[in-house]
Write a structure and sequence with these properties.
This protein has 280 residues and is an alpha+beta fold. The chain has eleven helices and eight strands. Strands 5-6-8-7 form a four-stranded mixed sheet, with helices on one face. It has a two-stranded antiparallel sheet with strand order 1-4. Helix 4 crosses helix 8 (167-174) and helix 10 packs parallel to helix 11.
Length: 280
């Protein structure tokens, strides 16, 4: 990266120390592309895989060009398409983080909100609908159905071609925020089974207390932290609790988040997880 960031020289010495590395990278990329193209000469689907990052990347490029380069837009697209796979439950979040770290190490943007992207594009504004409109003419699409290359690991894809993805799922990834609306007032029978984690158990307790009606929690981790959270919510009239099935199921009756400050101090001890949720 230091060699690439050095100003050009007329004697061509700028890249002399990394010339062999760049040669290996280019040749490796050409070999991969040649293999894929030769395996799919009639574009039956496998060649789509070369377009990882391009479906969303081209959408940004169509709006931000020429200030933001093709490769920079594809870098953003790679991260967002990986995030899409994670959102769909196909990819572990650690892979997305690894991809972001790798691209960032090469000085590439990984988000449309990247400071360099914002500065060079003069903060150009656009809507999610505009991005989806550009994506609608992608060559991988079949009719109106958008198709995106989805990963299920580093160097792995969920199928040997681009996968069909709904607009509503792409919209979630492209949006800067999500508006959460309350569910209909019709009572729901809700049962929650969190993994054995005190942090997630406390989250489940808080969410149940913010709701109205009964929520049954199975597999609640019994710890000092969860005990502190239970006592604190009761003391603040946030919820009432009872046990069923011999203590296997905790029934939470939420008070819609109407917490009331108590005249006495809440003792949290060393329950860091509970203190974090109760004071933020």
């Amino acid at each position: 990266m230091l060699a690439i960031q050095t100003p050009p020289r007329t004697d061509g010495s700028r890249l002399s120390n990394v010339r062999s590395v760049i040669k290996d990278l280019v040749l490796g990329s050409v070999r991969v592309k040649a293999h894929v193209v030769s395996e799919d000469e009639r574009e039956g689907g496998l060649r789509n895989l070369l377009n990882f990052g391009h479906s969303i990347g081209h959408a940004f490029e169509g709006i931000l060009t020429p200030q933001i380069l093709h490769g920079e837009c594809v870098s953003i697209g790679m991260v967002l398409e990986a995030a899409l796979a994670r959102y769909l439950g196909k990819l572990d979040g650690a892979v997305v983080s690894r991809l972001v770290k790798c691209l960032s190490s090469y000085g590439l943007p990984t988000s449309p909100r990247d400071p360099v992207v914002q500065r060079r594009s003069a903060g150009r504004s656009y809507t999610v609908d505009q991005l989806l409109s550009v994506m609608s003419v992608d060559k991988k699409n079949i009719g109106k159905q958008k198709r995106v290359v989805l990963l299920d690991g580093i160097g792995k894809i969920i199928e040997r071609q681009a996968s069909e993805v709904l607009d509503r799922d792409i919209r979630v990834i492209l949006s800067s925020g999500i508006l959460v609306r309350p569910l209909p007032s019709t009572p729901l029978k809700v049962s929650c089974t969190p993994p054995g984690s005190k942090s997630i158990s406390n989250r489940a307790l808080v969410l149940a207390a913010l709701g109205k009606g009964e929520c049954r929690i199975k597999n609640l981790l019994h710890s000092d932290d969860t005990e502190v959270m239970l006592n604190a919510l009761v003391k603040m009239n946030g919820a009432s609790f009872s046990w069923e099935e011999g203590g296997k199921v905790l029934v939470v009756r939420g008070n819609e988040g109407r917490l009331e400050a108590d005249g006495e101090e809440l003792y949290l001890g060393n329950a860091g997880t509970a203190s974090r949720f109760l004071t933020t």
